């Protein structure tokens, strides 16, 4: 039947494992700080972890949650053979996927939950996943100077990290318990003057925490810090305190 050469079809490339973790997490695992923070935020969003808990207790809660998830998956029927017997979450494994699904369904509105639970084609889910990936990529990029000649547009502010979030609330509690701390208004003024958008976001979060505990002390501290500033820096602090969205020109 002729001179046909034999050939083999190339195997399709393996799809990379989707994961928000970089390393294993567990009692005897790598436990990278960024991975622990991700799981801690997941537990906090589910109401299972207090935001002011100590780092040592945070690890204990995380490890108990991993162990509980492992035991739940091990008794859920068909998936028992896919579950590792150790109390470790590995990037992309069944435990992490189950936790991400539970957290996603808890956060998404009803229309998105219907997409997640549907047996329909995955087109809509791909659109949602793509949008989330683009949003995360924008958050990871450093602040860039305005280049489009639009100083009057609303400023794009960075999101504060979890350590600053917790530190702001501990400082607010300290002020509430002990009264005014000498020199704190100077630190706030310097952060507003030299810290750019990140400093603005951090100070704004601190004042929000302090206002929720003691509005009078928050206003007194605002006036003290204002007296240390002038020009654009003073205007930024005023907008920050009175929730007036800043413009890109305020940071130029």
Short description:
The chain has 252 residues and is mainly alpha-helical. The protein contains ten helices and no strands.
Provide structural commentary.
The protein has 252 residues and is an all-alpha fold. The protein contains ten helices and no strands. The chain has helices at 33-45, 55-74, 94-107, 110-117, 123-140, 162-178, 184-194, 196-213, 215-226, 231-241. Helix 2 crosses helix 3 and helix 6 crosses helix 8 (196-213). The chain is flat and about 70 Å long.
Name the shape in a single word. flat
Order of helices and strands: HHHHHHHHHH
- Which structural class do you get from the secondary structure elements? mainly alpha
Which percent range describes the beta-strand content? under 5%
If you average the pLDDT, what whole number results?
75
Total number of strands: 0
Cα-atom Rg, whole angstroms?
25 Å
Query: Uncertain segments of ≥5 residues (pLDDT<50)?
Result: 79-85
Q: Work out the helicity level.
A: 55-70%
Individual helix count = 10
Biggest sheet record: none
Overview features:
252 residues
Could you give the topology of this structure?
Elements lengths: L32 H13 L9 H20 L19 H14 L2 H8 L5 H18 L21 H17 L5 H11 L1 H18 L1 H12 L4 H11 L11
Helix pairs in contact: 1-2, 2-3, 6-8, 7-8, 7-9, 8-9, 8-10, 9-10
């Amino acid at each position: 039947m002729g001179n046909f050469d034999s050939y083999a079809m190339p195997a399709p490339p393996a799809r990379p494992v989707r994961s928000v973790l970089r390393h294993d997490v567990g009692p005897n695992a790598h436990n990278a700080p960024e991975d622990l923070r991700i799981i801690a935020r997941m537990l906090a969003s589910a109401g299972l972890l207090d935001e002011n808990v100590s780092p040592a207790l945070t690890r204990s809660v995380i490890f108990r949650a991993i162990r509980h998830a492992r035991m739940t998956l091990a008794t859920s029927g068909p998936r028992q053979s896919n579950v590792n017997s150790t109390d470790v979450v590995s990037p992309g494994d069944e435990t992490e996927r189950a936790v991400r699904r539970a957290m996603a369904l808890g956060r998404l509105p009803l229309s998105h939950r219907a997409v997640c639970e549907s047996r329909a084609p995955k087109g809509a889910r791909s659109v949602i996943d793509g949008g989330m990936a683009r949003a995360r990529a924008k958050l990871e990029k450093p602040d860039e100077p305005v280049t489009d000649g639009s100083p009057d547009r609303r400023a794009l502010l960075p999101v504060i990290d979890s350590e600053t979030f917790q530190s702001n609330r501990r400082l607010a509690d300290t002020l509430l318990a002990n009264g005014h701390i000498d020199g704190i208004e100077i630190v706030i003024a310097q952060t507003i003057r030299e810290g750019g958008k990140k400093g603005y976001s951090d100070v704004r979060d601190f004042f929000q925490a302090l206002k929720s505990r003691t509005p009078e002390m928050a206003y007194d501290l605002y006036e003290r810090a204002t007296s240390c500033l002038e020009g654009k820096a003073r205007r930024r602090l005023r907008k920050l305190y009175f929730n007036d969205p800043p413009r890109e020109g305020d940071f130029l």
